[in-house]
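ok so for the tutorial part 2 we go from a plain amino acid sequence to predicted structure tokens. step 1 is just haveing the sequence, like this:
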Amino acid sequence: MQQTPYESIKKIVLPLLPPELVQYLPSRWEKIGSVVTIKVPEKLREYKEILGKAYADCLDCTTTLNDTGGILGVYREPVVEVIYGSSQTETIHIENGIRFKIDPQRIMFSSGNIEERRRMATIAHVDETVVDLFAGIGYFTLPIAVYSKPKRIFACEINPVAYDYLCKNVVLNHVSHIVEPCFGDNRVVAPKDCANRVILGYLHDPWEFLPVAFQCLEHQVGMLHYHELVPVENIPGQPLSHIEAVAECFDRCVEFLKVHEIKSYAPRINHVVLDVRISQ
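step 2 — the prediction. this is what the tokens look like for a chain of 280 residues:
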């Protein structure tokens, strides 16, 4: 029987680690293109270079990063260190036929959101205008542009590094005629009163950006895809109440269509997306 990648990694490091520490070997990783990111437990920190080489060799990667601090700040920057291989970590990650140029040392990419990216790929219609308020390197924008081919997508991004990759990825995926990257704070640069559909894919106090989302909708009517971190017992009530509170300010109605639970973010806290229709 063929070994799993984890079993192969374990076999390599087994003779190199004290037996009592093998149980702490990371069983999860994030492989983006030719770069793999792991989270080395404190008990294994002195062996991180050994682990870095083992993971890179078994997963066919050129570099291993150690996640030392998660994702921080408005720019959503990863806090990582190189523990094996080249410090030049720009790579191309291919997912669902989409090519994402990215540097995992500088920009986040969550493989845990893959099903949502696949779902969004066919969500729009050819006659629609879409506004992506937190486009990043094109996580949702590119699948929508490539597969739904809407009339226009305005992709807003405040992080200059992510914006640069967004622009490159638009060209790389041949959707320059559909996607217009917008650099800066979406509260300033997002086009108003034009969209049929708005994506609000931000997890830190996202309700603060709901007024912008409503302003982007043409006549404040259309579809919202709203992301939020929610205690499991408050799904979908908590995020729906945030949308309804803003809708009341715009004298609009909210039709709840569906909730999609993307993944567990923390114990009893889930990352969810609400699909809602805003009407008069």
